[in-house]
Fold these 4 entries.
Entry 1:
Amino acid sequence: MTFEITVDGRPVPALPGQTIGAALHAAGIRAWRTTRFGGRPRGLFCGIGVCFDCLISVNGEPVERACLAEARPGDEVTTS
């Protein structure tokens, strides 16, 4: 049974047990931030929590990795 999370004000469907990174990827969102120097797009890279390319903020909490954060109904995700 799917539910929605909100990513930068946009609804994104998610499945129980799915990470936010996987939900973004499934919705066709491949990049959601850019590098400080050069402005290159970043999203999922390793997918297992080793790198820091997929950083997000969930429900106003400090930055975490999208590939490790489990999506929960009603989550408010910000990427900038």
Entry 2:
Amino acid sequence: MAFNILDAVKGFLSPDTVGKAASYLGESDSSIGRALSGLIPTTLLGITSKAEMDGGDSIMDLAKRALNTGILNNLGDTFSSAGGGIPESSPGLLSAVLGDKVGGIANAIAQFAGIKGSSAASLLGSIVPLVLGVLGKHAGDNGLSGSGLLSLLSGQKSSFQNALPGGLNLSGLFGGRETERHDATHATTHTHTETVHTEKKSGSWLMPLLLGLAAVALLLYLMKGCNGADKEEIRTETPVAVPDTTATTVTPVTPTRESLKVKLADNSEIDAYRGGIEDKLVNCLNDSSCTAGKDRWFDFDNINFEVGSARLTAESQAQVNNIVAILKAYPKAKIKIGGYTDKTGDDAANKKLSQERADAVLAAIKAGGANAAQLEGAEGYGEDLAKIAEDASDEERRADRRISVQLREK
């Protein structure tokens, strides 16, 4: 069986390890899991980019260094009271692999997962050595050279890109490559023209400051509890600003969406957002002039998946439950689930991923108690219906990446 890098790395991140990290950092398990879902593919994209620049030799050297730190055996100690699991070499590894992108990545992860900037930096300081260590072990076990390691990384690059969760904005950090996966960031009618963004937590700590890589190294040092620093004091301090050395402008914060109660035909109500999929779908069901059919699509705006898989995140369940409630309130309605990608990456891989994710959403709706007679299947279209050119900007291609509901009957 071919070696899957994503799966190999995730194998080291057991629920127990995630729980230890959450407890140590003062975050929830779900938030840490969400952060890791973005950090793993992001780190792999950074490593691949570095390998492509020099033929893989420097990454091979870094992988050997990381392996020699014992990170693969000591990951469970990273977030212990001793704080000794983060290798002393972490700042050097971060600098060598990600360069001036460290601050931007940590800031994006913190914003995406809703965690403190210090927590994101600490996680980054563990994941980079872990991924390098996994690569170092595989290379050593299989006698790979630097070029062989490069070939392995390049061959799985599209899977790294596809694994980036929706809502994680790393646009431009890797030379304009696709670094933001939004499977469902637009809620529209069949014309697919009206954009709706998911709500994001905001705060002053989200604003990237030009503090430089040295600040990240210092932060990691402090997170390890050096010089007798009290761990609990660090965890409960005011969230710190995460350094971002990639730009001089402040990243704009997405405006908060307007919450509303959507009343259904059975007089029950669901919590949703104005202009979201629930609002639009129910309006259509209540409007006699809004016809059902093959062209009547509504895009999910809060459906995400775990890294490298078709497993829905816990946060996605709320929107799944809302769809189930709508179907129960409108028993004549019948729907189909569609999955889509943009034109970047391998065609076959895009088709497979879109089908798996469409199937996963359909299965979740069934599991939520929806009447099977109202569900008319799921289909992954991959990039077949993508309209935006592959060489367009990531922002332009975003509309092609989504999971949608087709209202077939009402």
Entry 3:
Amino acid sequence: MVDPSGFLKSGRELPARRPVDVRIMDWREVYEEFPEKNLRTQASRCMDCGIPFCHNGCPLGNLIPEWNDLARTGQWSLAIDRLHATNNFPEFTGKLCPAPCEAACVLGIADDPVTIKQIEVETILRAFDDGLVVPQLPEKLSGKKVAVIGSGPAGLAAAQQLTRAGHEVTVYERADKIGGLLRYGIPEFKMEKSNIDRRLDQMAAEGTRFVTGVSVGTDLPVSELDADAIVLATGSTVPRNLPAPGRELAGIYAAMEYLVPANKAALGATDVEGHIDVRGKHVVIIGGGDTGADCLGTAHRQGAKSVTQLEIMPQPPEARAAHMPWPTYPMLYRVTSAHEEGGDRVYAVNTEKFVGDAHGNVRALVLHEVVSEGGRFVPVEGSSREIPAEAIFLAMGFVGVEKGPLYDELGVEIDDRGRVVRDANWKTTADNVFVTGDAGRGQSLIVWAIAEGRAAAAAVDKHLAGSTFLPAPIAPTTMALSPR
């Protein structure tokens, strides 16, 4: 039974971050180890609510109170079983998800919420160390073949579920290694790639086949895929552009043009094509989200002279405002590890133009302050100013799939927001073709990608076998908790 007074005895505690001056000298993860005693104390704060709203905050439907109490009592084998019952990759979500479950924690109404994310990641890391993560082989093979195109969290979740259902699954990835943006879009200091590799070892042992360095539709025609069903999990990868005057200047990049080669170099690759080194330069990042923070931490480790992060929205409050009621996910002022390392954050500003030097390189950015009036951002008169900028990274999100031969050959429909059109059964407008993750939903969180992958796998299994035992945690139209 849960400790009924645990939340009264202890406050919220998280692992310490390594000292800034130490961690910016390497690419290792920023957090120090968290003692088991402290973790079990944190797990004791879970109240095992009669109606656990954390389930609603999480699209996976994670059985949070159950594995919290198993962690509290040190029953790690049972804890990881309950965690894996709803989540294929808790090591990914435990490190990268912004934890909407914690925003929906009942304790969070009047106190600091339970450290759900930390308990989750410590449970899975302990499970790996104790040899509790083993291949789960299918009871029988179906004789059906599935091609999953894209190896991000949605594609991998769909692939693992379908393999366990007995289908022969092949995952195609155009990069040189499996993982999608998890591999090269997420810096090592947020998640070391050994976490991906050991999960892939499990999947390979279960029977999933991986093909890298192949762009389906270009290197391999769709017509040559030997598959009874195709799952599109290509992500939403077209970056949002900023067509301000001077955009053509050299030194202005989409965020992934910077992060991908930088992460390859950080992982030891040499002569990386397109590598951008900002050592000794004034850097400006446009966009205040997670991708912007990833650029920020990367620039610190490369030795940038200065880094300024711009955001058009006003600075968020430090506590819930009335228009962001519990249990919705609030937009709060958060200090990530990258922000803790330095740089300036400037809110409520818009880019007016980019300024170049005599050689066509960007040297500065002109911005002005804005206020919101009638749903639009209006410039504040007399607020224009110039800031130095020798490298500028656009981290303003993504606007859809990359249109090209793959979608043309399949004949799937793409809507005006760049998403592959799908029905209530995850099917596209093409026969035997399904879509999951950001390619169908649009840019979203990793926890939604895994939930989509699991649900789409259930639909594909039913399509191929006539019925399915696979769980379907969400529908294609399921939305996050919202104050509106």
Entry 4:
Amino acid sequence: MGTKLNFRSSLNRRSFLQGSAAVGAGALGLEFLASCGTTTSSADSTVTATIDTLPPTANKGAIYVFNQGVKQFEQTHPGEKIVGKNDPYDPTTYFARLAAGQSEDVKESWFTEPPLLISKHAVADITSLAKGWQYWSSYNPGIASIATDAATGKIYGVPVSGYALGIYYNRKMFKAAGLDPDKPPTTWEEFRGYAKQLKSSSVAGYAETSTSNQGGWHFTNWMYTAGGDMQSADGTKATFNSDKGVSVLQMLKDMRFTDQSLTKQQLFTQADTLQLLATNKVAMVVMAPDQLNTLKSQYQANLDDFGIGPMPQNGGNAALTGGNIFIFNPKSSKEKIKAGFDYVIYNNFDLSVMESNLATQSASGQVVGGPANVLFTGEFQQKVNELTTKYANAPLQNYQSFNKSTATLRPEPRKETQKMYAALDPVVQAVLTNASADPQKLLDQAAQQFQQVLDQSAS
């Protein structure tokens, strides 16, 4: 998403995660990686860098756009070549693959990952390359900080896209239920009422995720809408077993068993809930805007039938935000890292290439114009906005409530995030499958379990 359509969307970001992300990174002994760079063969002046963003084979339009971008880059950067791989970042295997020399030179990771990767020397320092780029100083300070080590000021990645979670909904179902499709629910009370009104014998009002770390991910998002916190400010204490955390679980439990507005089947990933939405089995789901392309390309959905609204609130006036960041292999040569960096900047932020990409994306049937987080400030961001508007092919009027939202965008917790999500998955599963589940007891147990992870990481 962001300034270039993100084919490797948050669906991929979550769908392959396993319920336990508790890989002992420290046990892998990766502290040596920073000094393990290799050299480029002197027999061939061409430098070839690998990158993991080749789209899946089913998305032929996206593959065409990817290949065109690589071709253009190689024509304008003689001596540098790019080879694409379809190998999504996975925290459960990243460290082992890196140690074994099996990781690409460039990988697209998530905003949550740099602190751990930096501490384990599992990502390359690209400070000189980043500061040599004319638009680095145009990054929103909050976005730039994601790639920067607060202790040293060194830079370890290039943020390229951002998202905020919101409510996807079926506009036709809203109309049929007597609801205004231009006015999605804005409060928990409205959300619960809408879900009850939208349910029928064949349609559920809402479907929630609860596996592959996505239960914890969405729980965090709901917690933010209630004004709660997942961790203490310094990241040393688990705080999600609060009254606000209980209220999140109680709402979901009441919707499932009292209102019966949730799906009877549970244990879904985001891929599952998107399919339910696309096939008219559910009226509302929580999703990031970058799923519009998957909704259209994979399910041939008519985007005119779907809207995106902001997260319903219960005192927090906030929603979870995250995004993708390119990181570089510390075992790769400086030449490969430079080639990869040049490609990332060229393909994502060169304005002429951006315009060409947007035109190609639109012509090939990819979605252009969906809601996106603002990564930059000033004149550069204005130019980006103008290009996106020029080539937009999405029904922009269907996203007005989302775009006009004044909710604060709160980032995912930065300490052991995936392990925290893994600890919360069973909690969300329990309240969605067991009418006798005790939200407070479940959260207390999960907090105790996750506190041990935090304590171990601090030792």
